[in-house]
Amino acid sequence: MTKDAWKPWALLAPAITAVFLLLVIPVCFIVVYSFWLRSPTGADIAAFQFGNYAKFFADSFYPSIMLRTIRVSLETVVICLIMGYIPAYFFYRSTTRFKSVLLLLIMLPFWISFIIRTMSWINILGDTGLINHYLIKFGILSQPLSMLYNEGSVLMGLIQYLLPFMILNIYVSLEGIDKSLLEAARSMGCTEWQAFREVTLPLSLPGVSAGCLLVFVLTAGTYLPPMILGGPRNEMIANLIFKRVIGTLDWPFGSAISVILLGLLLIIVWTYNRYLGINQVFKSLQGE
């Protein structure tokens, strides 16, 4: 061990300390709480038992919400990928001097509160919202169309929130591609579509992979769009945790649900990286 081996650890120490204090320790507390009991009086009793986990799987209501969360997360990933790749590719190929302005517009939603962005959909999709107002005004409808408090409105809120993450991840990956590779492909007789399919698309897969994983994890853990736009029939697992911890102060059961969600996400992320993730993409590219 060299005399300067401690320097990297010294530089990493603040970040490691922050992660340990703000992430590892709170998660450990949640894991410990998940084994506690809740007395009939509402007090939490220190214990080590699996009754909270058994309660989750004993009633089909809770697993059904978990399955809905996974399904909505996958739907959000697919829609964001389709909608996000096109503008990311446009930014990559664009030579306009307004490119930086367009990128700034993509990041503009981050400057506005997530709550305000989500609640704005009520003024757009509500019975007295913008869409229904003009549909009735022009005589297309006589009664307002119900567009809120369903899975579609939840998806719209999630896409508005997560689409910039997908676009930026894909764009960063595309921007790292040497454009001379495309010129070389075209000089060898490839059409524009063939050059995209054989060069651009494979080299952009790391960004696609990272964007999909980020959108999936953020969707599975969010509770605001389902709470504001979904209504009671479209709850996701984060809404259930919120109600148990904040609404009924049932910390042990809420913690158990949180641990189950965390464990499921860890399994999904590990499986994704093992078979479809960034490392696998790089291995396949190196093999070619």
**Helix/strand/pairing category:** mainly alpha
Rg on CA atoms, Å: 24 Å
The H/E string reads: HEEHHHHHHHHHHHH
- Name the beta content range: under 5%
Question: What would your notes on this structure say?
Answer:
This protein has 288 residues and is mainly alpha-helical. It has one domain (53-287): MetI-like fold. Helix content is 75%, strand content 1%. The chain has helices spanning 6-33, 51-58, 61-93, 99-107, 114-125, 130-137, 151-175, 179-187, 192-221, 224-230, 237-247, 251-275, 278-287, and strands at residues 37-38, 44-45. Helix 5 crosses helix 7 (151-175).
Lay out the secondary structure.
Layout (H helix, E strand, L loop, with lengths): L5 H28 L3 E2 L5 E2 L5 H8 L2 H33 L5 H9 L6 H12 L4 H8 L13 H25 L3 H9 L4 H30 L2 H7 L6 H11 L3 H25 L2 H10 L1
Antiparallel strand pairs: 1-2
Summarize the structure.
The protein has 288 residues and is mostly helical. It contains 13 helices and 2 strands. It has one domain (53-287): MetI-like (MetI-like fold), CATH 1.10.3720.10.
